[in-house]
Amino acid sequence: MIELTQAKNGVIVPVNAQPGARRNAIVGERAGALRVAVTAAPDKGKANAAILELLAEALECRPSEIGLVSGETARQKRVLLVGLTVDEAARRIARALPASEPSSPAAGSS
Known about the structure:
The chain is an alpha+beta fold.
């Protein structure tokens, strides 16, 4: 389960970044963090910009409503989603996770 933290002006999401991947995607969850892969190299903030762009699109946020709080040069990052509650952020993240992710509800499985 992803460890979301309510902040004064939104929600902090821990992100485990994978720069230099084959494709841009939210690939799942690991150790309480959202795993995000981007094709951009970790050079001059290119991977950070790609991660924020991908998260904004996947979580249905405007680019101005998402920002990097910490981890500019690390794989472990903290991203702020402005204006969301923990519950709303959790719903958006659940929709963005791959269907095979265990934290997603299994619909109609027999």
